[in-house]
Amino acid sequence: FPNRPDGLVPSELIHHRMRELEDYLTNLLKIEIYKRHSET
To answer: Model-level pTM?
Structure first.
Protein backbone atom coordinates (compact mmCIF):
# COMPACT_ATOMS: atom_id res chain seq x y z
CA PHE A 1 0.00 0.00 0.00
CA PRO A 2 -0.21 2.37 -1.86
CA ASN A 3 0.46 1.26 -5.40
CA ARG A 4 0.47 4.78 -6.83
CA PRO A 5 1.73 8.12 -5.43
CA ASP A 6 -1.03 10.49 -4.28
CA GLY A 7 -0.07 13.00 -6.97
CA LEU A 8 -1.02 10.50 -9.66
CA VAL A 9 -4.47 9.69 -8.27
CA PRO A 10 -7.19 11.40 -10.36
CA SER A 11 -9.11 14.07 -8.45
CA GLU A 12 -12.39 12.17 -8.79
CA LEU A 13 -10.86 9.22 -6.92
CA ILE A 14 -9.15 11.16 -4.12
CA HIS A 15 -12.06 10.62 -1.69
CA HIS A 16 -11.77 6.87 -2.22
CA ARG A 17 -8.00 7.10 -1.72
CA MET A 18 -8.45 8.97 1.56
CA ARG A 19 -10.86 6.29 2.79
CA GLU A 20 -8.40 3.51 1.88
CA LEU A 21 -5.63 5.26 3.78
CA GLU A 22 -7.87 5.80 6.81
CA ASP A 23 -8.84 2.11 6.82
CA TYR A 24 -5.19 1.06 6.45
CA LEU A 25 -4.04 3.19 9.39
CA THR A 26 -6.98 2.08 11.55
CA ASN A 27 -6.10 -1.55 10.91
CA LEU A 28 -2.46 -0.92 11.79
CA LEU A 29 -3.53 0.43 15.16
CA LYS A 30 -5.40 -2.79 15.85
CA ILE A 31 -2.07 -4.64 15.79
CA GLU A 32 -0.60 -4.44 19.27
CA ILE A 33 3.06 -4.16 18.23
CA TYR A 34 2.33 -1.05 16.13
CA LYS A 35 0.01 0.42 18.71
CA ARG A 36 2.68 0.37 21.42
CA HIS A 37 5.73 1.14 19.27
CA SER A 38 7.80 3.92 20.83
CA GLU A 39 7.94 6.01 17.64
CA THR A 40 4.19 6.08 17.01
So the answer is: 0.64
